[in-house]
Amino acid sequence: MAARVARPALAALARDARRRAKARAPRAASSSSPATTLSVVSWNVNGLRSLLKKAPRALDELARRTDADVLVLQETKLGADGRGAVDGEGEAPKFLREYGTREYATSTARKGYSGTAMFIRDGDWAKMKRVEATRLSAGGFDDEGRVLTAELDSCFVVNAYVPNSGADLKRLPERVEVWERAIREHVRALESRGKAVIYCGDLNVAHEEIDLWGRHAENSKSAGFTPEERAAMTRLLEECDLVDTFRAHRPDARAFTYWSYRAGAREKNRGWRLDYILASRRLADSIVDAYALPDVLGSDHCPVGLRVALP
User: 99, 161, 258, 291: which is the annotated catalytic residue?
Assistant: First the structure.
């Protein structure tokens, strides 16, 4: 079993993240020109309407705590009306009001299933060409609202909710052979346009043994820790020249982002690290901070964040 992370340590991590956010001082820049420090935060909310009903200020508090420039969500479970389901048509936003760019991708295959959202804070730094729901030519996954892609001046941000292979691994072949190929092609196509890529979201895999609390042999037959899924993650990192920003910044940290609701898994810290922010390798030396926030409640996942210096 992984050692339980002490609450004082979590509090210290949160204070450190807030201090860094206020300072907005990059550790390193890749050129002599002025750098922008970009803060990206990702959270699988396991139902956006449910979260906002339980805690209407949850996203505002998270955005304020992390000083997020880009906030992405997965498993929003909204209907086809997307924004209207939580914001109301033609009304002022009820949450994240400083984030004027708001985009939702929703499932047309199944109501109240899957779904992603992206919120980008107003400001000159975020001169943006477009944000769009992305179809990957990935079979039935394209109808499940799983990908949003934003183009900023200095980089692309891709928000993905990677398909779960299922309790009986029924979707494992399609996930590995169809989805993973399609997302690699998408990331490589963005990279070929000369900008760095930040690929984030619930990637539904515990890549290394350190990313899973225990019972590795037993869990190797479970969705999220099969050899096929882990190998696909390795191939993504290698072929797309990406780095796992959390692991690059905290190589020995045992930090989880998902806990089953069963058997008190969160209280026992029997978790999985399923949520990631990956980035083009050219950004590796410009990582200011990469972290998880396990003390943020409201979902069976917790948020993860990245602060990185962009030229």
Answer: 161
